[in-house]
Amino acid sequence: MKKEFFGKTPSGRDANLYTLKNDKCEVVFSDYGARVISFIFNGKNIVGGFDTLEPYFTDDSHQGATIGRVANRIAGARFTMDGKEYSLPRNDGDNCLHGGDGFDFRLWEVPEYDEEHIVFSYMSYDGEEGFPSNLAVKVIYTLTGSDLSILYVAIPDGRTPISLTNHSYFNLNGFGGDVLSHKLTVYANQYTEVGEDLIPTGKRPLVIGTPFDFRKPHTIGERIDDTDGGYDHNYILHPTVFKEFDGKKLGLAAKVEGDEITMEVYTDQPGVQLYTGNFLGSGADFHGGIKQVKHGAFCLETQTEPNSVNHGHGFYGLGEFYTHATVYSVKKM
To answer: To bridge 34 with a disulfide, which of 1, 11, 26, 120 should be the other Cys (CB 3.0-4.6 Å)?
Structure first.
């Protein structure tokens, strides 16, 4: 494990980089946002990120970050719990996206690390971004061969909604071009339909006969013009293949094939958000001065269904634990 200074946060605190490395790959993390900064495999960096800390302060694409307290969109930037309405930041039109000024803009503690894993911890206090109750959060990254495992554990001291995810942007061919030629399989029979504001309509159509059908491999770009600007949709997972990681049986959610690298995503979550970098292109340069391009990366964010808090789901109380496990497994083709 290598630790090095990354820069000063807006409040003047030190942010650091931490590197996990083995004979298969090298992954760099930062305590600013408990995020993945880079992921080197087969001579390529396959995760988007910046060379310096400052671009992350204003980055609205959430590069590599841990997302919380609630991932994805909450309609109307509000929810009702136990008869009381809670108001949240409106940072996506009239909606709240990724918890407002959320976990990716916080400096996390690093209570533990070694050659194979690193633990990030954060205390989200009652009222932060409008969410009730204190919430103690840990994110544990483990690098085993070329498998990057993420385990989330969150413990509230009172009732609150919780849904965490990771927002890494992947390009398995290395950055600089788009990902439209990547072949994608998503193990789901249904997706969550959304309206113009990307809030779920309540319908969960079958993918068959639609451009959202990735039950068999299709390139990302094959039918992207039949969508409204690209994919930004939750898939309701129906895995048929399971694999054990550190004693946890996880289902195969998706598989992506680049020119030389394949990635499989395993999770215990009910959904995965496919996002195809529809709004990339205007942000800071990626590592090495590489310009951002539209559809220059894809995200596979394992999660609960968007806006589920407004349908009574995703709440945890005193004495309850939120856990979530996901593995990004890469290999040469």
So the answer is: 120
pLDDT digits (tens, 9 = 90+) for 86-120: 999 999 999 999 999 999 999 999 999 999 999 99
Query: Could you tell me the residue range of the domain that residue 177 belongs to?
Result: 2-332
* Partner residues linked to 298 by β-bridges: 170
The alpha helices in the chain, defined as continuous H runs, are: 55-58
Catalytically annotated residues = 167, 301
Residues in the chain: 333
What tokens appear for 261 in the block? 């690298």
| DSSP H or E segment with residue 111 | strand 109-113
Q: Which residue has the tokens 């085993």?
A: 144
What is the chain's percent helix, strand, coil content, to nearest 5?
5, 45, 45
CATH, residue 142:
2.70.98.10
Overall domain count for the chain:
1
C-alpha–C-alpha distance, residues 55 and 298, integer Å = 20
